[in-house]
């Protein structure tokens, strides 16, 4: 049987908070985006430079309002030349859906709002190691650019590494029952639930 590693990444030059925390990210939305003209739409309409997205899982941060820290910022993950995933705040999701819908007559593009998925955000000095161990990930990649991000699918969970205001965060995106299982697992390993909104 052949072993295929699931690569994972973290940022090389940003801080990880000392305390290990979890937060249910109730305002986060996943949108699967596809189409034969997905790349022309992303480069022309959203103005993205996709040259760094050379392998599945690589991603970048963007914004619909010019502010990478606003509720209109997003993370875009590359799966193939015709398939991507956005993870963003519900404010930005509504605007992005309107923009895609408006452009569907010009571009061969489609989107699916993954309302079946929920998001759990975690951070802390042990977050990366716990995720690598729990999801059997291979920690072989480092992200040197704060606008880069990375996502990997392990079983039923999409796991991301993202910079938020120069701090390393990770997100778990999955169906709620699966996410609740991982929340319990992480709490048993010392991650405390936080009520504060993640910026």
Structure characterization notes:
The structure is a single chain. The protein has helices at residues 38-44, 90-103, 127-134, 176-188; strands at 6-11, 21-24, 28-34, 58-63, 73-80, 83-89, 110-113, 117-123, 137-143, 148-154, 157-164, 167-175, 192-193. The radius of gyration is 16 Å and the shape is globular. Strand 10 and strand 11 form a beta hairpin. The strands form 2 sheets. Strands 7-3-6-5-4-10-11-12-8-2-13 form an 11-stranded mixed sheet, with helices on one face. It has a two-stranded parallel sheet with strand order 1-9. Helices cover 21% and strands 41% of the residues. It has 4 helices and 13 strands. It has 199 residues and is an alpha+beta fold. The mean pLDDT is 92.
Task: Explain briefly what this protein structure is.
The chain is an alpha+beta fold and 199 residues long.
